[in-house]
Amino acid sequence: MTLHLDNLPRTIYVEREGNKPLVVMIDQRALPGELLWLRTDDWRAVVDAVKTLAVRGAPAIGIAGAAAVMLAAFSLAEECSSAALFAARLRKVAASVAEARPTAVNLVWGVRRATQTAARALGAGRSTHECAEALYGLTEALIAEDEAANRAIGAHGAALLRARAAAAGRPLGLLTHCNAGSLATAFYGTALGVVYAAAEEGLVARVYADETRPVGQGARLTVWELAQAGVPTTLICDNMAATMMAAGLIDAVVVGADRIAANGDAANKIGTLGVAVLARHFGIPFYVAAPVSTVDLDTPDGTAIPIEERDASEVLPAPLSGVSVRNPAFDVTPAELITAVVTERGAVSPADIGSFAKE
Length: 359
Ligand SMILES: CSC[C@H]1O[C@H](OP(=O)(O)O)[C@H](O)[C@@H]1O
Known about the structure:
Blueprint: E1 12-17, E2 20-26, E3 37-40, H1 43-51, H2 58-79, H3 83-98, H4 105-123, H5 128-168, E4 172-176, H6 191-200, E5 204-210, H7 217-229, E6 233-236, H8 241-246, E7 252-255, E8 259-261, E9 266-269, H9 272-282, E10 286-289, E11 295-296, E12 330-333, E13 340-343, E14 346-348, H10 353-358
Parallel strand pairs: 4-5, 4-7, 5-6, 7-10, 8-11, 10-13
Antiparallel strand pairs: 1-2, 2-3, 8-9, 9-12, 13-14
Helix pairs in contact: 1-2, 2-3, 2-4, 2-5, 3-4, 4-5, 5-6
Bound molecules: the ligand CSC[C@H]1O[C@H](OP(=O)(O)O)[C@H](O)[C@@H]1O.
Function: Catalyzes the interconversion of methylthioribose-1-phosphate (MTR-1-P) into methylthioribulose-1-phosphate (MTRu-1-P).
GO biological process, one term: L-methionine salvage from methylthioadenosine
EC number: 5.3.1.23
């Protein structure tokens, strides 16, 4: 299968306009209709983009978190008369950025990478402007690190699917939920990174993409991304997954994750748990693809993962009197329903993810 990954735009990156740093992000709210870009030097605009899902996906919002702290550092270096005041105000901004969305641990991880870099720079006697420049360098490094991790995840995931395709004697039908693709990362994607790597080996016959209500990351983002890349794709409603599995069309499920607890329980887009239960019923392997930065050793199990409750209007745009709405943006798949977690370091049983991530 000839892929066209060069058709995929980069999701988030940084650039200079003169000396001014800019964060450039695809505004994913406009896809698939329009490819629009947000370009800003204001950290508050980056936080708003995360909150409004203009930029979304665990690794992508981790990078956005670090980038927002970086933009704040450049502004504060101009405003603050002392390093102490700069440090205090940067810490306050960082805390605000980290609160933008609660479930994906990558956001806190990205902000922490930035605050640690800033503390090291200031501790080494660097100026506040030099500290801001160090954060710009960090943001570029995180973007490169993320893409490299995604390509490694893809390779490890393709190895698993190679064995499945060999056993089946044919290319595979895969199901995915939400968007854990290039659009959810700096580039290439995690679950879709596995798809791309496997597709390049001729291991993929077709991807079945859940529409993923209520925000439609599958219907708006995944099918657009896979079509751009040239992967045969079928869009299905979320309530069709069982029928596709019963018809023997699905050989494996590959999804992303927003936070993986120390015991291997994994939080991902709402609806993932249902897919995992169905996969278990039909004897279909269920893979979670995520970088090690998505593993949160401070969260012992899935019950401790904070689940974002988003606005009711995403589910019911016109409120009905007497009708309440729930809109949890994520659910938690227990480790026992996960066949393997595929990371950049390799594939591992979810039960072993804690020790694996510590290495
Ligand atoms: C590669 S992780 C992507 C992950 O993030 C999505 O959530 P959201 O679109 O709300 O940021 C979804 O859970 C994906 O699996």
